[in-house]
Amino acid sequence: MASLITCPHCGVRPKEEFAIRGDASLVRPAPSASDEAWHDYVYVRANPRGRTVEHWHHVAGCRRFLVVERDTVTHEVYSVVDGAAAAREAQR
Amino acid sequence: MVRDYNNRHALDQKLRGAPKPAHADHLEVGHWQAIATVLAHVGLDAAVERALSSTPDLSLRYCGPGEWLVVSGVDTPVGLMRRLDMLCGTQAHVVDHSDGRVLMRLSGPSARQILAKGIGVDLHPAAFVLCGSTNVLCGHIAINLARTGEDVFELIVSRSFAESLFEDLMTMGRPFDLSAAFSE
Ligand SMILES: [Zn+2]
Q1: Angle B178-B182-B184 from CA coordinates, rounded to 5°
Q2: Residue A61 and residue B134: Cβ atoms within 8 Å?
Q3: Looking at the partner chain, which of A16, A17, A62 has a beta carbon nearest the beta carbon of B64?
Q4: Global pTM value
Q5: What CATH number has the domain spanning B34-96?
Q6: What is its EC number (chain A) (predicted)?
Q7: Which residue in chain B has the smallest CA separation from A60?
Q8: Residue A89 has what pLDDT?
Q9: Cα A26–A29–A34 angle (5° rounding)?
Q10: C-alpha atoms less than 13 angstroms from C-alpha of B76 in its C-beta half-sphere
Q11: All structural domains of chain A with their residue ranges
């Protein structure tokens, strides 16, 4: 696993300071969406090989949610951005 | 049954008794230290930081965006709260943490070597600059670490973890003959 994460607020930190909160690419279905859509959103996860986007929580640091893009094969970290900034970016 | 409320320091049991002489590497624990958390309202980070850093007696410890621990060496906890309310009461949430946190001051030529055993940030003088501060994991305990002097670091920890952190630090400092005492 990627062992060093560059937090935009705290700098380079060991992965032990973080909690991984799962896939960040999921889009929440509309409240009226089908049960299947909600079931998939809540329970069904891929186990990807390669590039993934995840929510990481910097528990022992700034306590911010971050969006980390990393490779599960090479352990390379491509980008780390603040969750709020990523959400603002996505809304545009 | 009526019991008297005894307000004891979190490390009272560890450090009680006659003060031992401080060695070159020394861990000093303040008896009562005024500490508050300040969390700026959305969008007011810069304004709050300006208000706080304009006051010379207050020491700001960075926690995260818009969030600081404010340490005062001259105020009582009540006095610090009053001062912070006046400075930024309308722009931030201010919470008194004087009883909830414990401040330890580690100083000496081996301070960095001791800390490096439990902390995953670069402590080199050029990387961890004077007056720098950050939240960091020490062993398994989340602390706020600040560099307040050439070889002086201040650790702020939750009260409930203070005893555990204290024992960890003493173990980390054993090869360097680390001593510990309450400050005068
Ligand atoms: Zn962080």
Answers
A1: 120
A2: yes
A3: A62
A4: 0.91
A5: 3.30.70.100
A6: 1.5.3.1
A7: B142
A8: 86
A9: 125
A10: 2
A11: 4-25+35-91
| pLDDT reading at B110 higher than 90 | yes
pLDDT value for A2? 66
Q: Give the DSSP H/E element, type plus range, for residue A3.
A: none
Q: Tens of pLDDT along B144-158?
A: 999 999 999 999 999
Class of CATH domain A4-25+35-91: alpha beta
The Cα A20–Cα B116 span in angstroms is 25
Q: Tell me, what's the ipTM? A: 0.86
Instruction: Using pLDDT thresholds of 50, 70 and 90, give the confidence band for residue B30.
Output: confident
* Residues in A touching B65 (Cβ below 8 Å): 9, 62, 64, 82
**Is residue B131 within 8 Å of B85, Cβ to Cβ?**
no
Q: What is the pLDDT of residue A92?
A: 78
CA distance linking residue A44 with residue B144, whole number of Å: 38
CATH number of B23-31+100-182: 3.30.1360.120
Distance CA B103, CA B114 (A): 17
